[in-house]
Design brief:
- The structure is a single chain.
- The protein has helices spanning 59-68, 101-104, 130-134, 167-177, 195-203, and strands at residues 12-14, 24-28, 33-40, 43-48, 74-81, 148-157, 160-161, 184-186, 190-191, 208-213, 223-231.
- By secondary structure, it is α+β, with helices and mostly antiparallel strands.
- The chain has one domain: D-amino Acid Aminotransferase, Chain A, domain 1.
- A hairpin with a 2-residue loop joins β6 (148-157) and β7.
- The relative contact order is 0.28.
Length: 235
């Protein structure tokens, strides 16, 4: 394990089936580029799985993270994605655990099935897309594509690693230290029984689900069998 958060990379999903996970939290699977957002007084870095800092290409996200961080320093796991900002019908995604994105997000979401975790930049957890790899160009055209940051986990707070803190507690801390805005959101999550939420996410076009044990720890740059990514159930 790297003691220096600057050397951390996003934790990857394991291959254990969701039914074998204990007390899982369930989230929609986001398309886009997986990153760790480092928020500090000295600036904001958006570090992808390969170690590249993508912050220079996303000044709006950087500004919102800098203004929305309610602590001296944060390291936040999440996705750079265009899903949240696609125009269309406003839909509220109510989720019992999440008062932010779950209650207030308005969006029209599209997606494709997720068969398993895919490695490489721009391929986590959903489809590989030219839109999210290039970050600024729409597929088949040159129009800019608005990108937002969707936070899914908090892995360090005020220079203290939270790697051994259970996931559910990390998520609750995340709600208290990161304000949402147009370009910064938090993912909704629920516990079982989650049938109605899964049906809603499927109807909105999400292609998969992420299952994560509520008590799971975080292993930077390594797979964790307490996290599982699956394609969206058909019913």
């Amino acid at each position: 394990m790297h003691p220096d958060p600057r050397a951390w990379r996003p934790q990857s999903f394991g291959r254990r089936l969701p039914r074998k996970l204990r007390d899982p939290l369930i989230e929609p699977a986001w398309d886009g580029i997986r990153i760790l957002a480092h928020v500090a007084p000295a600036g904001v870095r958006l570090v992808d799985a390969g170690g590249a800092d993508l912050a220079p290409g996303h000044p709006e996200i950087v500004a919102e993270l800098a203004a929305g961080g309610l602590a001296d320093t944060l390291v936040v796991d999440g996705y750079l994605t265009d899903q949240v900002l696609r125009p269309g019908t406003g839909v509220g995604l109510d989720a019992e655990e999440t008062p932010g994105l779950g209650e207030h997000m308005t969006q029209f979401l599209m997606g494709k099935p997720v068969a398993d975790q895919l490695g490489g930049r721009g391929r986590l957890p959903g489809r590989p897309t030219a839109r999210t790899v290039s970050l600024v160009e729409a597929a088949g055209g040159g129009e800019p594509v608005p990108i937002a940051f969707v936070a899914v986990d908090l892995v360090a707070l005020d220079d203290q690693p939270l790697l051994a803190v259970p996931l559910l507690e990390r998520k609750r801390l995340l709600e208290s230290v990161l304000r949402e805005g147009p370009r910064v959101r938090r993912t909704p999550f629920v516990r079982e029984p989650a049938g109605s939420f899964i049906r809603t996410w499927r109807s909105l076009g999400f292609g998969g689900l992420a299952y994560k044990e509520a008590n799971s720890r975080y292993h930077p740059g390594a797979p964790n069998n307490a996290w599982s990514l699956i394609s969206m159930p058909r019913r």
